[in-house]
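Dear colleague,

Thank you for sharing your sequence with our group. We've completed the structure prediction you requested, and as agreed, I am returning the results in plain text so they can be pasted directly into your records. Please verify that the sequence below matches your submission; if there's any discrepancy, let me know and we will rerun it promptly.
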Amino acid sequence: MIKIVELTKDNEEKYLDKIVELEQISLEVMKQEGREGQLFDTGREGISEYVHSEDNSVYVAVDEKGNVEATTYITQGQKPFTYNDITKYFKYGENYKKYIKSKYKSDLEYKKDLRKIYIIKIKAFEYAKKRILQEFNNKNKVSQTTLYEYLRTEIEQNGYHEKSELREKLNQYMAEFIENNYDSEIQEKYEMFYWITLDDIEAEFGTKQSKPDDTIKDYETFMEDEKEYAELIHKGALQIHEKPEFEEEKYYTANTKNSVELDTYLTNPHNRSIGIARIIVFEGIKKHIERHFKNPDNQEIFLCSTLHRDNLSSKYVSEFFGLTDSLYVNRRQGRDREVHICKITREEAMEYLTNIYNKLAVLYNYNPEGKVIKDSIALKILQEQLKYEEKEKKRLVRAKTIDKKLKGINHKFIPEKERKIKRLKQQISQIQDKNELQQ
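Please find the predicted structure tokens below.
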């Protein structure tokens, strides 16, 4: 019998080492399967930080012997534009620029803010650089004056991957500089104009910013001399590989305060329990949604996740919770990955939670409240799931033969889909036969 437990300050010591062990087991299996890099371990200290944070949650699924069979980390309220801020990927590109421009009464006011925030952004970079080098020099008893040596060292250690310490610290410290030195209006505009570069400014003004007393030119000259700004920020543009097939504007108001990330969900690879990842993620999502809407000023919440395209298990968990809108992106030297999102309004929230609960009860027999699920509801859930599984099976078969963008996808899921389809058809038939006998 599986029990779902939320980690707290009081019970964390009972489970922390077991979660760390589960992470290591999962990492080793992924490595053996050629899926190395699809998971970064959080570690004991990181998990404990989640537990002690008021914004984050850690849930585990425990068997009758006390073994941790699954775990999930749900995060909310991260620093803007750090690694965990998935919302930044949806606020990028020409459509987003047009959206921001529409907020201004005149083109002149827009350009004024564009230039102003760019200068502030570079000041934030200078602050972050100084702080990073100070920490690095104190720790290593050296006296570096540029980030290049730091970057070279990090590349040798981990290839400057997507969870790079340098990249994360740059974003974190820049965000802290803005938060500590400017009011909420500037903080909001910093977020709005996060992706701007000098090229954007020159495109808007229609001329090179080359006046000797021009603050932008002064800062840019300094950064070009350092050869760091262009390397780490200016030319670190986001790449969106595929045109979005959804309306992007509904996600422009997402931010770290109103967004919940399905950060990590792991199940024991040697003892998989169908549905267990969905169950613990649901408990985390439920907690965050209910808490978020206790504040009457909150009118919307966004659910987010990030995953590698070959990681179909994560894709299926995300889509189970309605995170069906996604971008396929690359950020600097990181790996290509999908970022998923969905929006839930205050009016939709309780119905959303009820529907997910019913799905878990029907599909995975998770019904701690002992609810009686009507046959009509169960039949609808099973039919919708059957439609989803059949569609996904067709996609996998097509990808196996002709779809180049899905090259490398894990085709072992095809027979698994066939088994699910067969089981769902049997369950549907049982309910239909039962209803016919009662008529």
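Summary note from our side: The two ends are 37 Å apart (CA to CA).

Kind regards,
the structure core
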